[in-house]
Design brief:
The protein has 2 helices and 23 strands. By secondary structure, the chain is mainly beta. The longest helix has 8 residues, at 63-70.
């Protein structure tokens, strides 16, 4: 039997907010099996599915859309959330309600990481964690006749790049890259040997921020041991492409925690020596470890 249709990555919906500039997405069944070897036979006597942890992942250039929809710590699913895949057709994409959707009605969406390099586009990665309503019904509804959510042209043009960073009031000159692990830990649980979990909760948020650069003069004996940074003196700024500094469209992340240079100097061949600093962020009593805003760059 020949293939009837092919599909490509489409937008993502988070509680009805359509996320554009999707780089990749994947809907998943995390399946656990049992296949015990019995009576010394050397091969399993039977096999069965014991549990399924469902969800998905996606990555996007649309920092503002994603962070505004999920926050830094994630968001509970309360309305239309899921992944869409566009049906291809001769000359472009098929029209009408002919696309694939993988929708989740209960669970959470969390940001997992954010990265950007010199002259590159920032990428944010997220996870969708699904739970079942009753332990026996799938937490993901699959449809082959979905309409494609509307994407605005302005949102599809939302792309940010690395601008600058400072940590503990130390301006990170020679910045070449940043990696943020949001450290969001979510656990789903079930009972009564049902295949699908029915409850989900946030366990912790323990972010780490890594800055990479070429200015080895930043490394001092003191900073190689440890220091601290606050929301007032530690931030990373991402510049929105196609704008100017005075436009209030740039993404600013502030953080609080302990930090130090971990790679004091590294080089090989005829390459430039690099240094890396890492902050382990923490709660300061009032603000989350990472706080974001959209503003002008001054």
């Amino acid at each position: 039997m020949s293939l009837a249709a092919a599909y490509s990555v489409g937008p993502v919906s988070v509680n009805g907010t359509v996320i554009s500039s999707i780089i990749s997405s994947e809907a998943t069944d995390g399946v656990s099996y049992t296949n015990p070897i019995l009576t010394g036979n050397g091969y399993p006597g039977f096999s069965a599915v014991t549990g399924i942890k469902q969800g998905g992942v996606f990555s996007s250039h649309a920092l503002y859309q994603v962070i505004n929809a999920t926050g830094a710590i994630g968001v509970a699913i309360s309305s239309t959330t899921g992944l869409y895949f566009k049906k291809r057709a001769v000359g472009g994409l098929a029209s009408g309600s002919v696309h694939r959707s993988y929708l989740v009605s209960s669970g959470v969406v969390i940001p997992t990481s954010l990265s950007c390099t010199h002259q590159g586009e920032a990428v944010i990665n997220c996870a969708i964690v699904a739970i079942s309503a009753d332990g026996t019904t799938s937490g993901i509804a699959v449809a082959n006749n979905s309409a494609m959510p509307s994407e605005t042209s302005a949102a599809m043009d939302d792309v940010w790049t690395l601008y600058d960073a400072k940590i503990g009031n130390v301006t990170f000159t020679g910045l070449t890259g940043v990696d943020i692990d949001f450290g969001n830990s979510v656990r789903t649980v079930g009972s009564n040997s049902e295949k699908f979990d029915t409850a989900v909760g946030m366990r912790s948020m323990s972010p780490t921020i890594t800055l990479r650069g070429l200015d080895n003069t930043l490394v001092t004996t003191a900073l190689a041991q440890s220091s601290t940074g606050t929301h007032a003196n530690s931030n990373i700024r991402f510049f929105k492409r196609g704008s100017v500094a005075a436009d209030a469209v740039h993404i600013i992340l502030t953080m609080n925690g302990s930090w130090c240079f971990e790679t004091l100097a590294s080089a090989s061949g005829d390459g430039e020596a690099t240094c890396n600093a890492r902050m382990v962020a923490s709660f300061d009593g009032s603000d989350l470890p990472i706080v974001w805003s959209q503003d002008e760059i001054t």
